[in-house]
Design brief:
Layout (H helix, E strand, L loop, with lengths): L1 H6 L10 E6 L2 H18 L4 E5 L8 H5 L9 E5 L7 H11 L6 E7 L6 H9 L3 E5 L5 H14 L6 H11 L3 H14 L6 H8 L1 H15 L3 H13 L4 H20 L5 H8 L3 H10 L5 H21 L3 H15 L7
Parallel strand pairs: 1-4, 1-5, 2-3, 3-4
Helix pairs in contact: 6-7, 6-8, 7-9, 10-11, 10-12, 10-16, 11-16, 12-14, 12-15, 12-16, 13-14, 15-16
Length: 333
């Protein structure tokens, strides 16, 4: 079995017996998991996927999940936050690493660092395929990420366009990736600085973010008024859904974060301190359930404005009203 592990440890072998996704960049960790699952389902459409948190992986659970099946089905077992596994469960995982099962791919998602380092070292020693998912704290890293997103999409973008995108959207990789996807979908040819400016800076940005600000503050009437004005002046509907998504995500981030000074939270969440203060004011009526409802509303509106619906304006109005209602969800049963 160790030989099989060694043969399948190449970086491009998505179906290696064990994949180790290491780091704290959520987008990259999620992608690493999704790529393995997609490869497994490409090999076998009936692949069984088990996505587990440390509390769900008790001693003995891994042995049950990886025991031989009568039908020899392909299976992907994902273990999130592997650094938080109990000592007994870590023993189970280490034992499994020495003899991985056929037709099963184990994905260990690990934050890196000192906590749980024994498991990390054991997986590496066993020859696990490793995907680095480091937090991108430097502007140069985010710029390289944006360039890579355009390359992966098979599209070209000027250096100035990539820089303008990073300048406009900041450090959130999900927002940067979403912006690249939006530009690739909407724009023909090379993406240049003028296109980025039209989508993400200037008057259009100001008006779309006004819609988002009023919505997340629960001010439905004002948000609808700003929405109608934005649409009447030619702001792209996809730009408005992007602003709504950013506004709701910011609320969700701060709700789940521990308390602290704006400067500390800014480092933790990747937002400038001034934005932390503004989002704190906006989040007073929000609950976690409200954030979930609002994100679903934004996703539906985004699909509608990109062709899945017959009336993009109605879809945006519906999303704005839903978000404003969700902004008053705290304290409601």
């Amino acid at each position: 079995m160790l030989g099989r592990m060694a043969r399948k440890s190449a970086h491009d072998d998505l179906l290696a017996p064990v994949t180790l996704a290491v780091g704290q960049e959520d987008l990259l960790l999620d992608r690493a998991v999704r790529e393995v699952i997609a490869a497994a389902r490409s090999a076998d459409a009936d692949t069984d996927v088990r996505d587990l948190t440390p509390d769900q992986l008790q001693p003995g659970t891994l042995a049950e999940l990886t025991s031989p099946s009568l039908f020899a089905e392909r299976k992907v077992v994902v273990v999130r936050n592997a650094q938080d596994l109990s000592a007994d469960t870590v023993k189970d995982v280490k034992a499994y690493l020495s003899s991985p099962a056929e037709e099963i791919t184990l994905v260990l998602v690990h934050a890196g660092g000192a906590k749980g380092k024994g498991l990390l070292d054991a997986a590496r020693k066993a020859g696990a395929r490793e995907v680095a998912c480091p937090k991108m704290t430097k502007p140069a890293d985010r710029l390289a990420f944006v360039r890579g997103e355009f390359r992966t999409a098979g599209r070209s973008a000027t250096p100035e366009a990539c820089q303008a995108l990073v300048d406009a959207l900041g450090s959130d990789l999900r927002e940067l990736a979403s912006a690249v996807s939006q530009l690739v979908a909407d724009v023909d040819g090379t993406v240049d600085e003028e296109v980025v400016g039209r989508y993400y800076t200037g008057r259009a940005e100001a008006s779309s973010f006004t819609v988002a600000d009023r919505a997340v503050e629960g001010r439905a009437a004002e948000a609808l008024e700003a929405l109608r004005w934005s649409l009447s002046t030619g702001v792209a509907p996809v730009l408005i859904t992007s602003a709504l998504a950013q506004g709701v995500r910011a609320i969700g981030k701060l709700l789940s974060a521990r308390g602290g000074r704006p400067a500390d939270l800014a480092r933790e969440l990747g937002m400038p301190p001034w934005k932390i203060d503004r989002v704190r004011q906006q989040m007073r009526g929000w609950s976690e359930d409200g954030v979930s409802v609002a994100l679903r509303a934004v996703a539906e509106a985004d699909g509608a404005v990109k062709g899945a619906g017959d009336d993009p304006e109605y879809a945006l109005e519906k999303a704005v009203v839903t978000i404003a209602r969700a902004a008053r969800s705290r304290g409601r049963g």
